[in-house]
Amino acid sequence: MRAYAFLDPAATDYVSGVRWPVPADDGPGEWRDSMGGGEPLRACTPDQLVWWIDQALWEVELVGDVYDTGRSLHGERGRLVVPVDAWSPAVAHELTADCAVRLRDRAVAALEADGRHAEARALGAADDLDAIADAAAAASATEPGAGSLLAGYTSDLVRFAGFMPDPSRGAAVAARIAAHALAGGVEETPGYDEAYAAERQRQANWLRTRLGL
Amino acid sequence: MTCKQIVELVTEYLDGGLSPAEAARFEEHVTSCPPCHAHLEQMRQTIDAVGRIPEESLSPDAEQDLLEAFRSWKQG
Prior knowledge:
The complex is a heterodimer of chains A (about 210) and B (about 80). Chain A has about 210 residues and is an alpha+beta fold.
């Protein structure tokens, strides 16, 4: 079956440490077997990509039994077929910005609900990542409340994404923070898991559409 | 899942002892947390290295030292 795999530039799976053989020319790479009983050969469907964002995206071919964990596909044998050129640092940055704007808008609504109209307007007018981070940090520092909490998450999202070593890792962090914040920020509360999954699905849809998969 | 929980669960994860849901949350955290990813890699490399040391490569003196160390640790 055809699937996808986010890998680092050396074609290594960031989580499992498994390295896929890179094609030497325009054809597919050599087959690689999973390490029976050890690390699986991991790939994913387009809907699962958002969980595994990394610097290089490959179309892969899996053969033999394939187990769908819900978040990834574990295959017995697979090979890299072709890089997905639609994925790039610029697209990773777009995803970070999409997550930041979505969280910014939620923070603006919460600030309005808290009666903090001037701060809501200032944050709503911020349209690049640095400006969003600055306005969100200012709004989060003044008083407690839902608006401050969401503004704080918005600022954190931009700052932490910027700390990451490359745009793809930044996008992975941004997507996770956005989902956590939009779900309420406390894992044990009722409804958190559903809201978290819903935001992750929205991000997956964004990624799938943006990459044309 | 927090960074502290990642540290607590890393050997269980590498042993395949986490439930699928726990493993998914572990992996999601590691994907977006470079320090925890580094910790996971260090543990994986350590286990790999230790797993390649055959028992017969120990000298009798070294084996005796290790046995005494373990006995002391149990008594302490």
